[in-house]
Design brief:
- By secondary structure, the protein is α+β, with helices and mostly antiparallel strands.
- Among the domains are: about 5-75, 434 Repressor (Amino-terminal Domain) (Orthogonal Bundle), CATH 1.10.260.40; about 160-250.
- It is built from 7 helices and 9 strands; from the N terminus they run H-H-H-H-H-H-H-E-E-E-E-E-E-E-E-E.
- It has helices at about 5-15, 20-25, 30-40, 50-60, 65-75, 105-125, 145-150, and strands at about 160-170, 170-180, 185-190, 195-200, 205-210, 215, 220, 230-235, 240-245.
- The longest helix has 21 residues, at about 105-125.
């Protein structure tokens, strides 16, 4: 008979005579989450990357294969794969049953050229020169000075706020909000090596399922501890990080 994840954790802990309070102190995982894992009450846990991280950390503390147990939970929970974007087939350009692109023949090209010449002659006859004389086909009008063109050109507004880019060092759950509460990363699990951003805002609030993530704020690396437990931060307009308590962290729910 196959032993469940919770029974494996509980029996190993009891065999080693370790109390839940001792495990909490060593792993920083709260007792209620430890009990939920032992009882396989998965709904009481944050789910996804949070739960796998808890299982991995708890099992490793007991000397068990945390990766195997976390993978077993993943298989049991049956997390669906992300949908793939539909493939766009290029249009056929020839051969088979595809539609051929129309290519103008010599007669059509000659007709277009003749029409352009007639239009040019008409413009030359109707347009007046600066001194009142009728200009010929080759006459030109003065172009505005380059300085005038530059003065009329629209100016792009300078970017405001701070730029944030993040890279997953391992599988990590992320919820990222901008200063207005808009979800930039909507509670997604990022695979190892995945990069997101840059995002720009006057401030950010972010939650991570663990500390396996690298942050660049305006091109400067921010210090994020390599924790196996969830973390949350507030990033202010100067790029400073303030760690958030559990109740203050965004959840993207």
């Amino acid at each position: 008979m196959r032993i469940g994840i919770g029974d494996t954790l509980r029996e190993t802990r009891n065999r080693r005579k370790i109390g839940l309070a001792e495990v909490e102190a060593a792993t920083k995982i709260r007792v209620r989450y430890l009990q939920a894992m032992e009882n396989e009450e998965w709904d009481a846990l944050p789910g996804g990357a949070y739960t796998r991280g808890f299982i991995r950390t708890y099992a490793a503390h007991l000397g068990l294969d945390g990766e195997r147990l976390a993978d077993e939970y993943r298989q049991r929970s049956g997390r669906p794969a992300r949908p793939r974007a539909p493939r766009v087939e290029p249009a056929a350009t020839g051969g088979g049953g595809g539609r051929r692109a129309w290519v103008p023949g010599p007669a059509a090209i000659a007709a277009v050229v003749a029409g352009l010449l007639v239009a040019a002659v008409a413009i030359g006859l109707l347009g007046g020169g600066d001194n009142g004389a009728t200009p010929g086909i080759g006459s030109t009008r003065p172009h505005p000075a380059s300085g005038d063109r530059q003065a009329r050109a629209p100016q792009s507004p300078a970017p405001s706020g701070i730029a944030l880019r993040l890279t997953a060092q391992a599988e990590v759950w992320v919820c990222l909000l901008d200063a207005d509460g808009k979800k930039l990363i909507d509670g997604q699990i990022l695979a190892e090596g995945a990069e997101e951003g840059p995002y720009r805002s006057t401030a950010f609030s972010v939650s991570f399922g663990n500390g396996q993530v690298s942050l660049l704020i305006d091109g400067k690396k921010a210090a994020v501890p390599a924790s196996s437990s969830p973390l949350g931060y507030r990033i202010d307009s100067s790029g400073g990080l303030t760690q958030l308590a559990e109740a203050e962290r965004p959840t993207c729910t």
